[in-house]
Amino acid sequence: MSDSHNSQNAHGDHGFETVAIHAGNTADPLTGAVVPPIYQVSTYKQDGVGGLRGGYEYSRSANPTRTALEENLAALEGGRRGLAFASGLAAEDCLLRTLLSPGDHVVIPNDAYGGTFRLFAKVVSRWGVEWSVADTSDPASVRAALTSKTKVIWVETPSNPLLGITDIAAVAQVARDAGARLVVDNTFASPYLQQPLALGADVVVHSLTKYMGGHSDVVGGALIVADPALGDELAYHQNAMGAVAGPMDAWLVLRGIKTLPVRMDRHSENATKVADMLSRHARVTRILYPGLPEHPGHEIAAKQMKAFGGMVSFQVEGGEEAAVAVCDRAKLFTLGESLGGVESLIEHPGRMTHASVAGSALEVPADLVRLSVGIESADDLLADLQQALG
Q: In whole angstroms, what is the distance from residue 124 CA to residue 98 CA?
C-alpha cells in the first residue's frame, strides 16, 4: 500500500507520527509549557487602535488554541491552510456557501453521510443550488452527471455507510477537465491513512468528532485546502458566518491527534479481524470492508491508503428486524451514533445515522449494520459479535 503519507513533499523531512505530535504544538513562550494553553478568552488587548497583538483581536476571528490546531491540520493533510469549525456540518456549510451561488450544480455521491445529504437536499437546494447523484467509484458515472453549471464534485472514500472506494486521482482529473473543484470527505480514513490533496483534490473535509478527536468527547469539523487564495476566501466566510471551533474543543482535538497514528493502526488491525470473521459467518449475507480482497474497491484502496481503517458494515439474513436485533444484543459494542472513538460502536444506519436519506437515491439497505471497530482486545470484540449474531 501507499507510503505517500510520509512523503517529504507533504511533511518536510519528518514522518507523519512526528508531525502529528509537533505541528502547531510550539512551547508556550511565557512558561515553556509543552502543550499549547487553552486560550479561553473572547477578546484581546490591542497595541493601540488597530494594532493587533500577534494578529488577535476577537476569538471568532482567531484564537491561539484554534490556530495551533489549524496549523496541525494543514501539516497533516499536506495543505496550505486549515480551518477548524464547530462541527463537520458547519465546515461543509461554510465551504458550500463560499464555493457556490444560486444556479450552480454539484455532483454528490450515491453513498454518503446522511447529514451531508440533508444539507444538500433540504438546505442548500432551497438556496437555488442543484445537485445530481453519481456512483463516484466509477469516474464515467461522475462524468455523465456533470452539467455546464457543475462547480463541485463531492466524494467520500471510504464512504458512509457502505464503505465504497473512489479513485481520488481519477475523479480529480474529471473535475479538472470540467473546471470544477473536487471535495473529499476524509473522515473515515483520516490523514494518516489517506491524503486526498496529494492525489489531486482541492478541499479535504473532516468531522473532527471522529478519528481525529478519537475519544468521543468533542464535536468539531475542518477544511484543509491546497490553494492559499481559496483558504483566504474560506477564512473570510468562516469569520462572517461564525461557526468556529471553541478553544476547549480545539485543544481536545489537538490532544487526540497526537495518538492518531497508533490508534489508526489498531483500528485497522482490529477491523481486519472482525471483517474476516464476519465474512465466514453463516448469518452474514454481505460484508463491506475495503481490506477484503473481494471488495470491488480493494485494489484502489490499497493504492491510495496506508491501511483500510476501522469501519465495517455488513448485512444479515432475516432483514431489518434481524439487523436491529443484532444491534440490541451487542454488549461490548455500544449502540450509538458517531464513530472513530477508542470504544467500539454498533448502529442500524437505516433507523439512525441515515434516516434522512430514506426514499432517496442514497437509501441504505434495511438489513445493514455498521460497526466502528475500536481498539479493545480483538478477541473480546469477536466474541461479542458472535453472540450478537446468535
A: 12
Give the closest residue to 284 by CA, choosing from 313, 325, 321.
313
Distance (Å, whole) CA 105 – CA 125: 10
Q: Which three cell numbers stand for residue 312?
A: 465495517
Please tell me which residue in 93, 111, 185, 384 is annotated as part of the active site. 185
Residue 47 has pLDDT above 90, yes or no: no
What strands lie across the sheet with 130-134, from one edge to the other? Answer: 81-85, 221-225, 203-207, 181-185, 150-156, 105-109, 130-134
Burial of 42 (0-12, 13-18, 19+ CB in 10 A): exposed
Spatial neighbors of 276 by CB under 8 A, at least 6 apart, are: 292
In contact, 227 and 78? CB cutoff 8 Å: no
122 classed as catalytic: no
Q: Which of 299-303, 305-309, 350-354 has the lowest mean pLDDT?
A: 350-354
Which is the catalytic residue, given 181, 210, 263, 370? 210
Spatial contact of 219 and 246, defined as CB atoms under 8 Å apart: no
Catalytic residue, chosen from 39, 56, 113, 211, is: 113
Residue 185 a catalytic site member: yes
Contact 162, 287 (CB under 8 A): no
Relative to beta strand 221-225, strand 203-207 is: antiparallel
Identify the CA nearest to 346 among candidates 319, 323, 365: 323
Which one of 60, 97, 118, 283 is the catalytic residue? Answer: 60
| Beta strands per DSSP E along the chain | 81-85, 105-109, 130-134, 150-156, 181-185, 203-207, 221-225, 284-288, 311-316, 334-335, 345-347, 368-372
- How far is the C-alpha of 190 from the C-alpha of 340, rounded, in Å? 10
Q: Amino acid identity of 293?
A: P
pLDDT tens profile 255-270 = 999 999 999 999 999 9
- Provide the whole-model pTM: 0.94
Question: Is 306 a catalytic site residue?
Answer: no
Q: Is 132 buried (19+), middle (13-18) or exposed (0-12) by CB count in 10 A?
A: middle
- Look up 60 and say whether it is catalytic: yes
